[in-house]
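Bug #77: duplicate submission created two jobs. Keeping one. Sequence:
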Amino acid sequence: MDIGFVTLLLVVMAVPMVIIALLVRGTMGTPVLFRQLRPGLKGRPFELLKFRTMTNEFDEKENLLQDKVRLTRTGRLIRQFSLDELPQLINVLRGDMSLVGPRPLLMEYLPLYSPEQARRHEVRPGITGWAQVNGRNELTWEARFELDVWYVKHRTLWLDLKILGLTLLRVLRAQGINEPGAATMTRFTGSRHGL
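Kept job's structure:
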């Protein structure tokens, strides 16, 4: 299912992806793609692809500036409709990801998960997921992980199709893009209750 849908999506989205790439190059220069190691199935690392939405600006102490400072106007527009995620279609073709599954987070979070939260890595990460259609970045980390694990325990083809349909609605409404008051989401530092 992943390969069939993704092949179709790449054909349909080829021209928009070229336009976005040109916009990113024109406003932020190169590289056009953001690449970062993320944990995949069973926590194994893979290189996640996204369109760049932020500059690489540092302060005088060589610390990367906050996300809200580095997020460009073009980047904000691309993120509003989740277009920055389109290169992950290539990740799906490579077998790193699925269309539906828990979102791949940062490698540094791996030792912070409780055993139950770590179950999110029992399936391939997804471009969209149950947490994304139930609040996305407006959720607390604990709520997000509960939804991820619920998906792992209950996943079916019909649930995946439902999530894909709900994702389209959420993207068109530009819901849950960032945590209130933040450009993206605050970092996960571990659960207080070991959920």
